[in-house]
Amino acid sequence: MRKGVIRPGHIQLRVMDMEEALKHYRDLIGLIEVNRDDKGRVYLKGWTEVDKYSLVLVESDTPGLDFIGFKVLNDDVLNGLKNDLIEYGCEVSEFPAGELDSCGRRVSFVAPSGHTFELFADKEQTGKWGLADINPDPWPLNLTGMKAERFDHCLLMGPNVPATQALFEQVLGFGLSEQVVAPDNTVVAAFMSCSLKAHDIAFVDCPDPGKLHHVSFLLETWQDLLKAADLLTMTETTKDVGPTRHGLTSGQTIYFFDPSGNRNEVFCGGDYYYPDHPPVTWKAEDLGKAIFYHELYIHPTYLEVLT
């Protein structure tokens, strides 16, 4: 197992109307638009993020997820992980530097869950938005909407959760922070971390491969989350669940939908993870408490609406 995956780096989402999507991600969630390229892709970032962008939007006839990129420590790690993925049996492809704006070469592979991932070592760093490099203020003026701080994590749904978990543990060096187990002890949900966060990626069992459940953006406090809920009502944005608390990860949450139907989350708080921590285990028969700790049941839309 090779260490060196640092953090979630970017996600590319398909949206059906770019200008409506920008009203949502830029004006409502509060991400900062940093560029548009000649392929029609729009790049955005959270204000605390040092890299140039973390969200890429591309217009399409259908919503959903194209890929998620993880940043690795350096080019040597990238080369090593590429070889490790090939030896593990993954089909690997590569994109040259510059195919995504200001990003170095990317190594791409498909997990057993059917989702496409990529690894990269280099991306232009533009610093925290609106803050000086020396003697910075704690936050910038002129933030909008929910004032999202960063792209935090994704929850993905597809088949072969144990095999996907094994790939992320054995090749990419992720740890299992929390899990949901069926009565026969099969893992049906794996929450995984490459950092100190409660999770950087999560996989939940589903017969259909490659599905996006949600993409999550970090807010600072519970009070920020309540203001985000106000903004959802003020803008008549379709809400799914919340504000409430998870049992899994102990984080506070609101789920809602972008104009194309992709589910978003804004998230704050939550547990932390170190590699020596044993995974927290939840029973599948108690999934209501695990997902929505206050309500103790799963809202019907939560596991049914996927893109």
TrEMBL record:
The keyword Repeat applies. It comes from the Bacteria. GO terms for molecular function: catechol 2,3-dioxygenase activity; ferrous iron binding. Residues 7-122, 150-269 form the VOC domain. Its cofactor is Fe(2+). Its EC number is 1.13.11.2. Pfam families: Diox-like_N, Glyoxalase. Keywords: Aromatic hydrocarbons catabolism, Dioxygenase, Iron, Metal-binding, Oxidoreductase, Repeat. InterPro entries: Catechol_2-3_dOase, Glyas_Bleomycin-R_OHBP_Dase, Glyas_Fos-R_dOase_dom, VOC_core, Xdiol_ring_cleave_dOase_1/2, XylE-like_N. It catalyses: catechol + O2 = (2Z,4E)-2-hydroxy-6-oxohexa-2,4-dienoate + H(+). Homotetramer. Belongs to the extradiol ring-cleavage dioxygenase family. This is Metapyrocatechase. It comes from Paraglaciecola arctica BSs20135.
